[in-house]
Amino acid sequence: DAAVTQKPRYLIKMKGQEAEMKCIPEKGHTAVFWYQQKQSKELKFLIYFQNQQPLDQIDMVKERFSAVCPSSSLCSLGIRTCEAEDSALYLCSSSQSANTEVFFGKGTRLTVV
Amino acid sequence: GDKVKQSPSALSLQEGTNSALRCNFSIAATTVQWFLQNPRGSLINLFYLVPGTKENGRLKSAFDSKESYSTLHIRDAQLEDSGTYFCAAESQGGSAKLIFGEGTKLTVSS
Question: B36 at the A interface (CB within 8 A)?
């Protein structure tokens, strides 16, 4: 199994609260991606970091999320004000570089009540 | 989504039988990955493909970039093959992100 670690595994927040989830990419990987999955449907791309710099992100992330990779061994994804529609499985993945095989962590399951 | 269409959306197999899953792309896919998601949500890597074919045990996958499709063949299905299979593609000219299909939910029964 690839060693992408995500914490916490489960997160429960009330509407309006802030949420934060962390990801430790596989050692030596320079590309980090975050995806959102609702109800076991397709994974929706959120943001992509290369060498800790955000290179691509969707509008929702720009508007409501905060995502950083302060070091090559730690990234975080935050939601400033949780909404019910944010309830989902958040999956972090990493790859050695762009355009190479991607490996996923086990995800953080966020429930907003 | 529409850029990566998977079929079928659901599939039931008897143990020991064979089947194939398919992804059609409306984007210029450069690489394809196939994953199996287990009930707990973990995504297991099955194949990473540039155009061509790969085989691993009872699984075989092909990616044809000119015809814009990829297939995953399962031979001698086992109970532990149950789960949701996702294909995902990188798009030429896009960032390195993967574009996912909606998945095929496979149930293998005895």
Answer: no
